[in-house]
Design goal:
The chain is mainly β and 56 residues long. It has one helix spanning 45-50; strands at 10-22, 25-36, 42-43. It has one domain. The chain has a three-stranded antiparallel β-sheet.
Length: 56
């Protein structure tokens, strides 16, 4: 994956669980997490899809 901030190569660091609150109560899910070796920014493609805006 390419880092969306500096456009260098980012590596998968595994999956992290997250929780969000819906109309039906809390939902827990696991998301793929990448870390850029160049700028050290962490990102998850699923956050962009959900437009959730998590920052780690």
């Amino acid at each position: 994956m390419t880092c969306p901030h500096c456009h260098e190569s980012a590596r998968c660091k595994g999956f992290q669980s997250r929780q969000l609150v819906s109309l039906f109560g809390p939902l827990e899910y696991a998301r793929h997490y990448d870390l850029c070796r160049h700028c050290h920014h962490g990102t998850s493609p699923l956050d962009g899809i959900l437009d959730y805006g998590l920052t780690i």
